[in-house]
Amino acid sequence: MDQDLVTASNMFTLAGSLIDALTSVAGWARANVWWLTVVAGIALWAWEAVQRRLTAEALSRRTYLELVPTSEFEASPEQIWRQGIQLVRAAGSGPWWTPRRARSVRVRLRADGVRPLTYRIEAPQTAYDLIKQTPYGHRVQAKPVPAVADKRREHVVRAVFTLHGKPGSKLRDVPLDPDPLQPLIDAVTDLRTELGDLAEVCVDLSPASRRHLAVRRFQAMQRAREQARREARQEARWLTRESADSVPVAVGRLLDPAEWNGRPRGQMVMSPPPRRIERDAVLGKLAHTPGLVRVQILVRCASDKEGRAESRLTRIGAALDVYAGTSRLSSLGFAVGPVRFGPDWRPWRGRFDAQWSTGVMRPAGGGWAHIEELAGLLKPPTATARVPVLEADMPTYALGKDLLPQGWYREADGRERLLATREDDTLFEVQSGKAGWGKTMRAQVHAVASAHNGRGLAFVDPHGDSFDDVARYLAHPAIIDRVALFDLTVRDGQDLLGCWNVLDMSDGQPPHEVTAAVVEAFAGALGWNDITAPRALTIFTKAVEALVAVNTQAIAAQVPEQQATIFHIRALLTDSTFRRLAVATLDTEAQQWWKGSFPDLPRDALPTVLNPLERLGSSPVLRAFLGCPVSGYDIRRAMDEGQVVWICPPGTGPTDRLLTSLLVHDFLRAGLSRRDLPEPQRRSFRFYLDELISLDQQSSTVLAEITEQLRKFGCRLHGMTQLLHRLSPATRAALIQNASCLSTTAGSVEAIAQITSQWPDTITPRDIAGLERWRHYASFTVDGKRIGPLPIRGPELSEVFAHRAEPKKTGALRKAAHTNAGALPLTERTAMALAQEDQVRQFLTASSTQATTSAHAAAPEGEQYA
Q1: Which of 53, 451, 681, 832 sits in a 20 to 30 Å window from 34, CA-based?
Q2: How far apart are CA 803 and CA 701, in angstroms?
């Protein structure tokens, strides 16, 4: 018992001493309050200085990545959630000494007129391995980039956007289709680099602080409880007797029968209790910590022209209104009359610039948001976004820059820009659509531009009037000597006409290549194959092979003017004397078929071969063009010399299609023959071909082979057709597979669907079916990247090359074009073609006589006189 009393006494003594000490300290503090204030201020200043130094050091160690999406990129909500969580994790991955204000990650959306909208992530260096692989998979590439370095602009405006609304209220749940970034893209789509336009939106994210979150939750609950108490007190006033004399109560009594019967008045009424506060309902998004971040959004716009930056900032603010719901994003500041005070004014400007340059987190008003609310800002633009085509994506056409004009594209500010692709990028093109809607005009513009670029080309015009359209734009000294015209629409005997012997061996081509090209051309145009016409195919092959051998010997004998032509197949098959002379020139193996198999063939097998030749020969123009011995037309020479060859067939009938088929197969042969040239010496050459349907038969694969095999040999094909689905499946698949440019005008839904199927989820056939004349939808390849589909207006010669027109020199151009083609009057060409069979007979007779003489001279003396 005594021990307990002693212990209690000691405790009381200790407590008294402690109280005396505290009293003394309090007294000393009151006496020295000024010094304590100074010391506390110095300590706080030192702490803030250390924090700033550490913040600056941490924010200087940043890594920068640019996310580049593919044209097919689409993001799911789950992928965006994972990306957001990954960014929050990256924000807190700095060194242990990093202050909380520096634990942030920045998403920078930047538009400068060179690229539509770049998407960057700026995070601590230690987070590089974490953010270099995004949850978006292979459809988004993360590329390391340097920090942004901008030149100074004359006019700069700033804004800070923060969340306004109740603490737990949410932004609007914006769907992912269409892309939530679309309003922002539209706001910056008309930036102009020449005016120094620039727009940037920086979204800074920081992990949620438990201490700050606890304070916000406590404040929100306190406000909710106070609101509930106010509501309860207000309700009580209406129920107590103090409200008995109010007008509503008096009127109620007058209308209440109980009051008329003398019902007792003045009973005591209990005040209602405050309503129950539901925590989750009050806290809203603050109730759940996962995915909760602090966010600040900084916007800066600049320009060298007054007023443009301010206008841009207004449009960006309107674009952010897409997120407005119970909470919204609104800019900080206040207005006094026409003047608005905000981050552009001091002292707020220094704070903004520090946040902008470093990424330090100082969100105004709390700035709490869930990742789902910011989903539209946590991903690059998707395939559903309508991204403008800028100069860096697709250049503007300018003469002399090795470009091909593609079409007029209307930009967001209403200006039209003539889009262009680079010569070396534009390999093969397919145009589809209604007749008269501008396909041929686009091809003519391409051809003229390519000619001015110093490139070679061949334009096959089945309508015959395109050369008159382009002549004034080609009549220039750098082009005029390269132009060759083969106009088969002539009628008058004095009209000039070139010629083409498809069997001409003057250039030393391999005989088997010439034979194969001619046979495949006829077989493809006539539908011959080993099932439908095996005998005709064999007979024709052997006949062409024999005549090629004759011509090879004529060239060896240096008498090219005595070469055979395709029309001598009739004499070879029906004239035994001519056949005997021709067969005598063949080697022993080739003679075996003529001596052993040909005599056994029935005579009714020959008309299948001869009838197409008869149709060709019945046209004086075609007989003159194909019946002369030495060709003026040589597509291989045109390729190597960069010539501009214009070919005008006489029409589009079956016989004319046969001629065009010969031209296309010869193009394939000539292209493949360039394997004898080193690749750097293979000059690019374009072949423009209309009416692809007339050339494509089930048995012909020439168009597919051109697109599949000739790219490496510098050959390009531009094909036009009204109905792409009427091409054979193999040809259609090859054209679409290898096309650098796909375009279509208006037409039937069935026809258009063949093109739009290559543009999934972007343009539908119904979008195109009703296009006006000269309007196209087209996709292009630029620097290995597909651009489009884009709505364009087809270019016209007069508006693209008006300043290059030389109408007074078209006569000189036509004269030079005929000279380069070796053209002669039609009457002379006809006479030469009709006399050519006698020329060949003379050569064969002379060759036979010489062979007989040589054989006698080589035989023993006794055999010579046997």
Answers
A1: 53
A2: 42
